[in-house]
Amino acid sequence: MVAERGMETLRFGPMKPVGLRDPNTGRRPYAVVQLRQDDLAADHFSLVGFQTQMKWGDQQRVLRLIPGLEQAEFVRYGMIHRNTYINAPRVLEPTWQMRNRPELFFAGQVSGVEGYVESAASGLIAGLAAAALHSGFSFPCLPRTTALGAIGFYVSHASPINYQPTNITFGLFPSLDDPVRDKRSRRRAMADRALRDLTRWQESLFVERMVSPSEQIQYRD
User: Fold this and answer.
1) pLDDT tens, position by position, 1-34
2) Could you tell me which of 158, 178, 143 has the C-alpha nearest to residue 111?
3) Which one-letter DSSP state was computed for residue 209?
4) pLDDT band per the 50, 70, 90 thresholds, residue 66
5) Is 0.85 topped by the overall pTM?
6) How far separated are the first and last CA of the chain, in Å rounded?
7) In whole angstroms, what is the distance from residue 108 CA to residue 114 CA?
8) CA-to-CA distance for 149 and 144, rounded, in angstroms?
9) Is 36 helix (H, G, I), strand (E, B) or coil?
10) Long-range own/partner contacts, residues 162-171 (CB < 8 A, 24 or more apart)
């Protein structure tokens, strides 16, 4: 459990309050709980990020301490679910295709990607790579300096001995050539670098598709 790592851990994880302000006071809360609407009637909500091994009675007691949930009716309590995923570093390329079977692609949670955005984005890249393969075009890996390039490199190059799923984090990006001490400025510089490199990558795709596969072979010869 995340909470076992320390008293403050949850506040910097699923209950991270950064970017949120109390509309009544303008102050940032100590921690927040995200409720996700689960039905059209808007009378059933899920607590996001509340996987737990706590007993049901303890869950009810603790959750009723949250302002606004004192009288809540709990339809289903939290539990730990299992994520099943392949050992991607052993079998996948950064393009999300298998090394020994390039026509077979894996992406999303089964590849060891965490997060809805990351799962959808990796699926998009896998789809583009599959379309390129089917059409006879090459599909260059995204630059490691971009978010999708960084996570694609992680799933294909991480240690296979203790491979663990991950979200996209700044820790996956290569360091800047010119180090920046200030955290905000450093992240801004990394984002600017990613946009520049992504633009060059997109331009390379455009040039690649301006010439048909047969013309490319003649040109290269």
Assistant:
1) 566 777 777 777 778 888 888 888 888 888 888 8
2) 158
3) H
4) confident
5) no
6) 59
7) 8
8) 4
9) strand
10) 163/87, 163/88, 163/89, 163/112, 164/112, 165/83, 165/85, 165/109, 165/112, 165/113, 165/114, 166/112, 166/113, 166/114, 167/113, 167/114, 167/115, 167/118, 168/115, 168/117, 168/118
What distance in Å separates the CA atoms of residue 152 and residue 128, rounded to the nearest whole number? 14
CA dist., res. 94 & res. 107, Å (int):
10
Measured CA to CA, the distance from residue 94 to residue 115 in angstroms comes to 18
Q: How many CB atoms lie within 10 A of CB 45?
A: 15
Residue ranges of domains in the chain, CATH in brackets:
2-63 (no CATH), 88-220 (3.50.50.60)
Taking the C-alpha atoms of residue 52 and residue 81, their distance in angstroms, rounded to an integer, is 9
Q: Computed from CA positions of residues 168, 171, 174, 179, in that sequence, does the dihedral angle turn out positive or negative?
A: positive
What's the one-letter identity of residue 155?
V
Q: Which two tokens stand for residue 161?
A: 């001995």
pLDDT digits (tens, 9 = 90+) for 187-219: 999 999 999 999 999 888 766 554 444 444 443
Nearest to residue 156, comparing CAs of 136, 116, 194, 129? 129
User: Which three-class secondary structure state does DSSP give residue 168?
Assistant: coil
